[in-house]
């Protein structure tokens, strides 16, 4: 199968494509899906992952983030419809907002502040889900919606701004780790290879209903910082900073639907995954 990748590099980097250079089954075009795209060939799958995904990045590109979730999604659904392709939307645990139900099953409708700093991302992804369902119901497009929980792995940007890249860069440099708030808020971290397996499983064997993909192993942000300091063998200390507005207090996926429907569950443990990501950050810092 041949792959055509599109990116406008608003948050990504051409460096991440180096390993694919010269691969005859891979083609790249620098493009913005918000402007639509013409493809002459047949298309079997459209995987729509385009969007800034880190809170500081979508906070500094709110209009672009809203556009790519809405107009970009509509354009990619239009492409899938025209090509009779299967469409997969990379949605997010952020559709649950600051969740009042824990852990989060797909049936939970969420607790999102539409006008807060995270609203541009959360509401764009919620609109993207509504678009996918509308194209499915109206035009019978074969659609998938995955809700991706916190994920990490090699090739994240050092300047990404999320907890894992920040903590790793800080631990490697011997700087204090910036824990926002008291660090009692929780996240559940999935290693990227597990996520990729899940994406492919849902693409091949999923249905049109949303499906959570993430690792249910939940830790506090403070525990995460301490684990990274330990794995890095670092002498860094922890420095508390203000908690960002609307920062979700807890997050853990209920993955029973993924287990039942596509027989998927994560296999890489927290220390193992963080160790692999740390190796990458060491290689670039
Ligand atoms: N966080 C932190 N220090 C950082 C970056 C993030 O304490 O340098 C916290 C953030 O406030 C949140 C958690 O880590 O509670 C995860 O943040 P991230 O940006 O990775 O993703 P989110 O789950 O908030 O989308």
Structural class label? alpha/beta
Number of helices: 8
Cross-sheet strand order for the largest sheet: 3-4-5-10
Bound molecules: uridine-5'-diphosphate
Number of strands: 12
Range of strand content: 15-25%
Helix content: 25-40%
Q: Rounded to an integer, what's the Rg over CA atoms? A: 19 Å
Shape: globular
Largest sheet: 4 strands, parallel
Arithmetic mean of pLDDT? 97
Could you state the order of secondary-structure elements as H and E?
EEEHHEHEEHEEEHEEHEHH
Walk me through the structure.
With 285 residues, the chain is of the alpha/beta class. The chain has helices at residues 55-60, 62-83, 119-139, 163-173, 192-205, 221-232, 256-262, 270-284, and strands at 3-7, 26-30, 45-48, 86-92, 143-148, 151-152, 177-180, 186-188, 190-191, 211-213, 218-220, 238-241. The strands form five sheets. A four-stranded parallel β-sheet has the order 3-4-5-10, with helices on both faces. Helix 3 links the parallel strand 4 and strand 5. Helix 2 packs parallel to helix 3 and helix 6 packs across helix 8. The site of uridine-5'-diphosphate has 14 residues, from helix 4 and strand 7.
């Amino acid at each position: 199968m041949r792959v055509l990748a599109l990116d406008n590099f608003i948050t990504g980097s051409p460096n991440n494509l180096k390993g694919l250079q010269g691969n005859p089954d891979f083609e790249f075009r620098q493009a913005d899906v918000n402007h639509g795209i013409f493809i002459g060939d047949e298309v079997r799958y459209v995987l729509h992952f385009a969007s800034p995904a880190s809170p500081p990045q979508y906070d500094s590109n709110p209009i672009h983030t809203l556009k790519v979730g809405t107009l970009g999604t509509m354009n990619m659904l239009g492409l899938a419809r025209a090509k009779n392709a299967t469409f997969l939307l990379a949605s997010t645990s952020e559709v649950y907002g600051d969740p009042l139900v824990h852990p989060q099953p797909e049936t939970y409708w969420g607790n999102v502040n539409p006008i807060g700093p995270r609203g541009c991302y959360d509401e764009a992804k919620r609109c993207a889900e509504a678009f996918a369902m509308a194209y499915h119901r109206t035009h019978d497009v074969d659609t998938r919606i995955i809700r991706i929980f916190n994920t990490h792995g090699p090739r994240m940007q050092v300047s990404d701004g999320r907890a894992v890249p920040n903590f790793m860069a800080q631990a490697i440099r011997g700087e204090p780790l910036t824990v926002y708030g008291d660090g009692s808020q929780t996240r559940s971290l999935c290693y990227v290879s597990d996520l990729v397996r899940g994406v492919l499983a849902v693409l091949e064997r999923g249905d049109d209903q949303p499906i959570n993909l993430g690792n249910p192993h939940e830790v506090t942000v403070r525990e995460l910082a301490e684990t990274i300091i330990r794995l890095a063998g670092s002498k860094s200390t922890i420095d508390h900073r203000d908690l960002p507005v609307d920062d979700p207090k807890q997050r853990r996926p209920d993955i029973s639907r993924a287990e039942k429907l596509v027989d998927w569950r994560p296999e890489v443990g927290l220390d193992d995954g963080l160790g692999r990501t740390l190796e990458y950050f060491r290689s670039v810092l």
